[in-house]
Amino acid sequence: MKPNTLLDLLGDHRVHSGESLAQQLGVSRTAVWKQIRKVVAEGIEVRTIRGQGYQLVTALDLLDQHKITDNLVKVDSADVDLVVLKEVDSTNAEVARKLSAPGLAMPVVLADAQTEGRGRRGRNWSSPKGQNLYMSMGLTLRGGFEGLSGLSLVLGVAVVRALNVLGVKGAGLKWPNDLYAGGKKFGGILVEIQGELQEGQVQVIAGLGINVHMTEAADVDQPWTSLARHWPDQVWVRNEIAASVINEVASVMTQFRNGGFSAFRDEWQRHDIFLGKALCAKDGTLAGVGAGVDSGGNYQLDTEAGRVSVMAGDISLRESV
Ligand code: BTN
Asked: Are 290 and 277 within 8 A, CB to CB?
């Protein structure tokens, strides 16, 4: 008996008696019970109602490689080496392993869960099973390391566009590559440089984490939200989000490879959650007002001493006094 067969039956969110499940699946009630225990152990919440049966609690939104491929409209599926895993240490690490033996197609790895999901600045990335999107893409660019300037911001633009295509307006970008809605973070992008190949070609891994259905996150130490929380009227399907992101990343990368960040600057700025806000940077030693990004993608602050560009580190809202 395949777990998905049981999940298919429970997928209508009605109460199913053990007997009817056993009958429909052609197995014993004990086998049904064992199967229920297995899916629960995998993180899927199933309620047992005494005397009545079982009911699925968790919204079922299974990743499916074919459904993602079917929704690729801006890139030829032959140009994408798509892998969907049940569990991995980190999708970025998995893409790094694939890039060490590069093929012609762009590697894209998605996983239902990550055991060592990583965020920026050495932080962990909370990666509970089946609830969010964890995906990484291997990108090869020409022009050496200087050619990467602004890349992570452009990827943020791609994600906002991908959400727009799915009908969502109002997603914000927090420099350099956090995704925000209603003042809370719902996603982040981690760009890791894998190495430089011959002739100035650079391999980069772009990892994207988006909170989709997540309702609890004890290990997240900042205000967070998810797509389903912030936009509850929308039906969120991880396969559709993944395909939309791949479409938009493929599209922005063509433009970025030809013209760099400048063509995206205005668009990035339209989503800048820091614009005009009182901010501090450089571990609190620099205070100013958010003034958008410069042509290299560095964040600008209007300070008492004039306009200053911040190249790295965290920028945060200044508490009003
Ligand atoms: C951040 O700190 O905001 C960046 C988070 C990036 C998380 C994603 S999840 C998929 C990919 N694999 C990882 O280990 N990290 C990135």
From this structure: yes
Looking at residue 118, the DSSP 8-state letter turns out to be B
Do 200 and 289 lie in one domain? The reply is no
Residue 318 bears catalytic tag: yes
pTM of the complete model beyond 0.90: no
Are 43 and 161 in a shared domain? no
Task: Note if 29 is an active site residue.
Answer: no
Number of domains in the chain: 3
Q: Do 186 and 309 share a structural domain?
A: no
Q: Compute the distance between CA of residue 320 and CA of residue 99 in angstroms, rounded to an integer.
A: 46
| Same domain as 298, residue 220 | no
pLDDT tens string 279-310? 999 888 899 999 999 999 999 999 999 999 99
Same domain, 175 and 291: no
**Catalytic residue check, 97:** no
The alpha carbon of 219 and the centre of ligand 1 are apart by a number of angstroms equal to 15
CA dihedral 288, 290, 292, 293 (to 10 degrees): 40
Residue nearest atom 16 in ligand 1 by C-alpha distance:
207
